[in-house]
Amino acid sequence: MAFAWKAAGITYNRYLAIAARVVRRSLKEGPRLQAERRGEMDLRFAKWQNGKQGENKSLGEANASAMAEQAKAE
Question: Sorting pLDDT into bands at 50, 70 and 90, what band is 50?
Answer without folding.
Answer: very high
